[in-house]
Amino acid sequence: MISKEGTATIQEFLEDTSNLKSGWSPGVFFPENCDEAAALLRDAVADGRRYTVAGNGTGTTGGRIPFGDHVIAMHRLNRIGEVEPIDNEHATLRVQAGALLQDVQSKAAAAGWFYPPDPTEKTCFIGSTVANNSSGSRSFRYGATRRYVRAIRVALPQGDLLEVARGEYVADEAGRFALDLPIAGAVSFRRPDYGMPATSKHNAGYWSAPGMDLVDLFIGSEGTLGIVLEAELELRPAPERVIACLVWFMNEDELFAFVDQARSGAAGVTPRAIELFDRRALDFLRHVYPDMPLNTKGAIYVEEETTAAKEEGCLEAWMTLMEACGAPTELTWAAIDDAGVSKLREFRHQLPVQVNEWLRRQSETKISTDMAVPDDKARQLYELYRDACDAEGFTYIIFGHVGNAHLHLNILPRDRSEFDRAKNLYRKLVSEVLAMGGTLSAEHGIGKLKSEYLVQMYGPEGIREMVQVKKALDPYLVLNIGNLIPSSFYQPET
Ligand SMILES: Cc1cc2nc3c(=O)[nH]c(=O)nc-3n(C[C@H](O)[C@H](O)[C@H](O)COP(=O)(O)OP(=O)(O)OC[C@H]3O[C@@H](n4cnc5c(N)ncnc54)[C@H](O)[C@@H]3O)c2cc1C
Fold this sequence. Notes:
31% helix, Alpha-Beta Plaits, Uridine Diphospho-n-acetylenolpyruvylglucosamine Reductase, domain 3, alpha+beta, six-stranded antiparallel β-sheet, binds flavin-adenine dinucleotide, globular, 494 residues, Uridine Diphospho-n-acetylenolpyruvylglucosamine Reductase, domain 2
């Protein structure tokens, strides 16, 4: 197995897109098959090592950044199998964790199928998207990665390799799972007792629901319960056509009326994505897209799947809705072919890219939210962010998955004092969002940056329940320590 040492050589593994600094590691291992990955974990205690799992470093929460641990990098476990049709509506594709999301999507498309989860960043690894239950704009129609995982192969922290297909291990009435493993022996634990938020997207802490499947416990556990080595993904038929529109608005009331109508489908539209850009987000992109209309108060990006026969009617329905909501239709950017849709999707992708570029040139890092609230409270969330930031005089942008009431607020502090104030504000916003029935993270996960706030969401008891699950599978605490669960919760209670 290849390994690398030396800070200069492994520098890229000490970073992700969180801007979290000061990661360090004695070395990085690159397993080339499942057995090699499992063997590293099996020998961890004897070797005196802890491990942090690395995907491709596009994570935003410091999850893959090691603080003294060795790194297990998934880069060489990157094979993609062949598409296997099940019936007209479903096919499967077996992938290894280090395959790029964009390559998995291309492989499905080349066979006439479609892999719906679509985090905006396509260079992430597919295994990471499973470990983080990633999602993107299409989650409005299709939901998150969880829905498309039929089976996974995981390396458990004591070195067992476990293949779990849906339906094989299900929590009993008391919420217990029982496993009999070759290395770890009999392992039993109870799912956490906490309730889940009433949001349509949620990715904060271990998944827990009555009668839940063990596959769902691993999905979104951010590598704390095992390394996802392979997954059997579910594919759907590729849509015949997709149309996309970027709709500009001159005031916020009209923008949110459009969102409400589009969401409800009452206007005869059935979007798969509804995305928001606030005025400031548009300003951020203006140097890349100088032909953007001026004086707009925001924009909504929508996508809908259709057929060649229905395409014209579909576009007309959108135009009618835009007019009804007061959007200046002559300004709308509409796309009806693949190239045009890709260009508009790139517009959406450029926003986080440009923010990250801008941040790399700053001394301060951003404060960013990934919270969602129940679907009918999207505007409330928007106004909460906008009013709070205006009151503080911050530079900020608001954008994202408004169809799922999931908006990203990025505060861009100009100096340390603003950074400190922004952090204080973040804590207050977390409280407000939780009080609205929301979630701390809808898609990016918790990682190292947000673990302290998870206590606000579940309370100390909820975190202790997660620790019990973690310790049942990882009694020697060798894997992804510091992610998700605040490290202080591993200390024995006094
Ligand atoms: C511009 C931009 C846009 C983005 N847009 C979206 C979006 O729309 N939706 C979204 O959900 N996310 C988005 N993200 C976040 C990010 O792309 C996802 O979280 C992605 O899943 C991270 O993949 P990665 O391979 O880069 O993982 P890394 O950053 O390397 O790791 C992320 C975490 O996963 C763990 N991990 C990695 N691989 C495994 C494995 N095989 N088994 C167990 N644990 C593992 C790591 O330990 C770490 O905790 C965006 C990021 C950027 C930079």
